[in-house]
Design a protein that fits this description.
Length: 108
C-alpha cells in the first residue's frame, strides 16, 4: 500500500455510484510490471481488491496484466458477495488506466 514515487504509470478509476476510488501505481521495466502499489478511498471490498490486484500483476508482462478481469480479482479473494462484485471492477479498471498512462508517458 502507498504511493510509489518511481511509478511510470498511474491509474485512478472511480465508481460513479458509490464515489470510491482506487489509485494504482505501476513501475514497468522491459515490458514487465516490476513493482506496484495502491492507494484506496473506498470500502473494505475495494481495499481487498486493490491489494490482490497488486499480487496478481506484479511480475507480469503488460499483455498478461491486461487479461486480468474483475472476475479474476474476485476469485483471487475467494469470492465476493454479489452486491460487492462492482468493487472488484475498480481493480480491472485501475490496471487498464495505469497501463494507458504508462503507454502515454512512453510516447511523451
Ligand atoms: Fe464502492 Fe465498494 S462500495 S467500491
Amino acid at each position: 500500500a502507498g504511493e510509489r514515487a518511481d511509478a511510470n504509470g498511474v491509474g485512478l478509476p472511480g465508481d460513479p455510484d458509490c464515489g470510491d476510488t482506487m489509485q494504482l501505481f505501476i513501475r514497468v521495466e522491459d515490458d514487465i510490471i516490476k513493482d506496484v502499489s495502491f492507494k484506496i478511498r473506498g470500502c473494505v471490498a475495494a481495499l481487498a481488491s486493490a491489494s490482490v490486484t497488486t499480487v496478481l500483476i506484479k511480475g507480469k508482462t503488460i499483455a498478461e496484466a491486461l487479461k486480468i478481469t474483475n472476475l479474476d480479482i474476485a476469485a483471487a479473494l475467494g469470492g465476493l458477495p454479489e452486491q460487492k462484485m462492482h468493487c472488484s471492477v475498480l481493480g480491472e479498471q485501475a490496471i487498464r488506466k495505469a497501463v494507458a498512462d504508462y503507454r502515454h508517458n512512453c510516447r511523451a
